[in-house]
Design brief:
This protein has 251 residues and is of the alpha+beta class. The protein folds into 2 domains: 3-78, Nucleic acid-binding proteins (OB fold (Dihydrolipoamide Acetyltransferase, E2P)); 81-240, Up-down Bundle (de novo design (two linked rop proteins)), CATH 1.20.1440.120. 30% of the residues lie in helices and 23% in strands. The chain has 5 helices and 8 strands, in the order βββββαααβββαα. The chain has helices spanning 86-102, 110-122, 128-142, 189-200, 213-231, and strands at 3-16, 20-27, 31-37, 56-62, 68-77, 163-167, 172-174, 185-188. α1 (86-102) runs parallel beside α3 (128-142) and α4 (189-200) packs across α5 (213-231). The radius of gyration is 20 Å and the shape is elongated. 38% of the residues are buried.
Length: 251
């Protein structure tokens, strides 16, 4: 039976059988993969710590006919700060779910792996919602889905005004003429400008950026709708809050 190593993050964990868990891992070398961690729900399991959500570890995995199996696990970082604060836990869960829904198995992306690992560290010191927003925008950029912000996603013309229309269907903001053909939602120009800053800024210095409560709500909700449309999957963890705004509907 073939054995391989995976330098990976646990991004999903579900119960399997009486004492096992199926782990969804995102590895530096191989991208997303799944493996069964046998007996990890038992209190004395040696692999218990490595099977926890968000854990960064070195996994030794046996290749199976139907399902791979974790043979050994050596945790490198467990990110304890993510478990004792609701906002930080929410942001980390949002990152893990977004990574899961946006990627397919066996597609390595070392830049995306590095971004995810960095953001899990940054959540300890930075505003968790700020890290989550920046992560979402950068992930979409890395995967080729960067939203058009401040220019029309349809015709490319520069857009001005205090309020703009953002269309998930079109892939960004729309001018007055082009929004006739798409559904969308209003977004303040300040929120659009702030999202551009989140993409451009050094991610280790985004704590220097300042936003207020309405910008946070507006940006997170816009990004949620955008991602859900692109991947046709609901972001359950992102829906836990009371974010929301009415769609404009088709003009």
């Amino acid at each position: 039976m073939a054995v391989y190593h995976a330098d990976a993050l646990v991004i999903r964990s579900r119960e399997f059988g009486e004492s096992d868990r199926v782990l969804t891992l995102f590895s530096r070398e191989m991208g997303k993969l799944q493996a069964v961690a046998k007996g990890v729900r038992k209190p004395k399991s040696r692999q218990r710590a490595g099977a926890q959500l968000f854990t960064y570890a070195d996994f030794l995995i046996h290749k199976g006919k139907t399902m791979d199996t974790v043979s050994q696990c050596s945790p490198r970082e467990s990110f304890p700060h993510l478990w004792y604060d609701l906002d930080r836990s929410f942001a980390a869960t949002g990152i893990a779910e977004l990574l899961d829904v946006s990627t397919i198995p066996a597609q390595p992306n070392q830049e995306l792996f590095g971004l995810t690992l960095t953001c899990l560290f940054l959540i300890e010191q930075f505003d968790p919602a700020l890290v989550l927003s920046s992560y979402a925008l950068r992930l979409m950029t890395l995967l080729g889905y960067r939203p058009r912000l401040g220019e029309c996603a349809e015709c490319g013309v520069s857009i001005s005004g205090e309020r703009l229309v953002f269309s998930s269907e079109a892939g960004g903001t729309l001018c007055g003429d082009c929004r006739e053909s798409y559904s969308g939602r209003w977004i303040r120009a300040g929120s659009v400008a702030f999202m551009r800053q989140l993409i451009r800024a050094d991610i280790t210095k985004i704590d220097r950026l300042r936003w207020n409560a309405w910008m946070q709500q507006e940006i997170l909700e816009t990004l949620r709708l955008f991602v859900e449309h692109k991947f046709e999957r609901p972001l359950k963890s992102w829906r836990m809050g009371s974010l929301g705004a009415d769609d404009l509907g088709r003009q």
